[in-house]
Amino acid sequence: MLKIQGLHKKYGNYHALDGLDMELKDGALFGFVGPNGAGKTTTIKIMTGLLKPDQGTVELDGKDMLGNTMDLRRRIGYVPDHFGLYDNLKVSEYMEFFAACYHLEGFEARKRARSLLEQVGLGDRMDAFVDGLSRGMQQRLCLARALIHDPELLIMDEPTAGLDPRTHLEFRQMVWELHEQGKTILLSSHNLAELSELCTDIGIIDAGKMVLSGSMDEIMERIYTSKQIIISVHDEMEKALAFLKESPMVRTISICEKDIMVGFTGDEHRESELLKQMIEAGIPVRGFMREPGSLESIFMQITDHNEEKVVLSYEDESGL
Ligand SMILES: Nc1ncnc2c1ncn2[C@@H]1O[C@H](COP(=O)(O)OP(=O)(O)OP(=O)(O)O)[C@@H](O)[C@H]1O
């Protein structure tokens, strides 16, 4: 649906986006994750036509959008990180104001506003003033506003920042329902754990570049296979090493104290095959396990610039 290629954006001498590529598939619930200052908001502002990049393309269904921001805005609903609400309006007036921006007026506008407000749980707040709403309610109002023109793609920048746990949970439920109803959704956050439970796809941005992206299943598989297998054998170390060198799925072998660390490209099934073959070859295996690791630990490694980037080196080698 949305394809971004080679985005560059500088603020003065600071390179906020440095050749960012990104693809958002039709129907995806995409988690756009990165540490503070990684370039999420800058990317989102370019996607929504609010900021011009120095270089790069943004296409929606194969059509260039940078020169066609009116079309872009018709097809996208945007919830910014700062709500920018008009405090002195009533909730219903606020919704009707935005409906009018999309040429929706009168009965149709009121009907659509009421239906959206009910959907986000603000049906009983039509006559309340916007500035009297709690932060969670203002967030939901912003969401209703972003849906007023029934956009195909909904983009939300850090939507859960500052929400208490209960409101947070309700918000996630709402996002999930919108996704079930067929909306393509992009949510940004610096909290990977939060998005990994909700999203179908994840893109991790760091220092203005997309460093890892794909469906949750693909990413979990990559993470799993990027972890080494730790094998310990009773004596017979040489025999074990000779065997492993011949195994086609073994990518790297190193020795750490008495353990053999094996970079292995196979899945869980292949992993148990390897163990079986080692035992059948008469190697006295005492221990055999994958290194523990999680999406969160990989995120920390990717975004900690002092550490080796495990997933990236794996990606480079495997060509995935
Ligand atoms: N208008 C601006 N002028 C100068 N620098 C800017 C401007 N907007 C953003 N930046 C800088 O560009 C970098 C990327 O900012 P951006 O807001 O896109 O990151 P982000 O990933 O959304 O961060 P956060 O999670 O903190 O909101 C940051 O270092 C930020 O300080």
UniProtKB/TrEMBL annotation:
SUPFAM superfamilies: P-loop containing nucleoside triphosphate hydrolases (SSF52540). Signal peptide: none annotated. It comes from the Bacteria. Keywords: ATP-binding, Nucleotide-binding, Transport. Pfam families: ABC_tran. Residues 2-232 form the ABC transporter domain. GO terms for molecular function: ATP binding. The keyword ATP-binding applies. InterPro entries: AAA+_ATPase, ABC_transporter-like_ATP-bd, ABC_transporter_ATP-binding, P-loop_NTPase. PROSITE patterns: ABC_TRANSPORTER_2. Belongs to the ABC transporter superfamily. PANTHER family: ABC TRANSPORTER ATP-BINDING PROTEIN, ABC TRANSPORTER ATP-BINDING PROTEIN NATA. This is ABC transporter ATP-binding protein.
